[in-house]
Amino acid sequence: MTNLLLFGTEGCHLCEEAEHVLESACEFLPEMSWRSIDIADDEGLSRLYSDSIPVLREEHGNTELRWPFAAADICRFVTELQRRIGNHRSGETQEQRITRTAS
């Protein structure tokens, strides 16, 4: 499961649009979940994201997707996150995967 955070704030029309895009992407990515985080509730998040919301970020990492994004962008973003997580869990290096694939 890939868990994402959508940083935004109440009354932000771009954040509302981003929520609609995420809902569309969920149709293609049943292994993805997301939740909204209102940056107004946290001074640190407000400083970090006030000029760039909406921002989509993996829940347990630092990889971000900044607005504007479409459902296809989210699909690519999640696929890349899952690939990296899978590669990390397998313990294989990229060289080992290439060697194994070439065999």
| Succession of helices and strands | EHEHEEHH
Give a count of the beta strands, DSSP E runs of length 2 or more.
4
Give the strand order, joined by hyphens, for the main sheet. 2-1-3-4
**Within the CATH hierarchy, at the fold level, what is the topology?**
Glutaredoxin
Shape: globular
User: Can you name the CATH architecture?
Assistant: 3-Layer(aba) Sandwich
Major sheet characteristics: 4 strands, mixed
Annotation field: number of helices: 4
Helix content: 40-55%
Spatial extent as radius of gyration: 16 Å
Strand-pairing-aware structural class: alpha+beta
* Assembly category: single chain
The level 1 CATH classification is: Alpha Beta
Uncertain runs are 92-103
Q: What is the domain total for the residues?
A: 1
The average pLDDT value, as a whole number, equals 87
Distance between the termini: 31 Å
Write a structural description:
By secondary structure, the protein is an alpha+beta fold. It has one domain (2-102): Glutaredoxin, CATH 3.40.30. Helix content is 50%, strand content 20%. It is built from 4 helices and 4 strands; from the N terminus they run βαβαββαα. The chain has helices at residues 13-28, 43-49, 71-90, 94-102, and strands spanning 2-8, 32-38, 55-58, 64-66. The protein has a 4-stranded mixed beta sheet, covered by helices on one side. Strand 1 (2-8), helix 1 (13-28) and strand 2 form a beta-alpha-beta unit. Helix 1 packs across helix 3 (71-90). It is globular. The relative contact order is 0.19. The model is unreliable at 92-103 (pLDDT under 50).
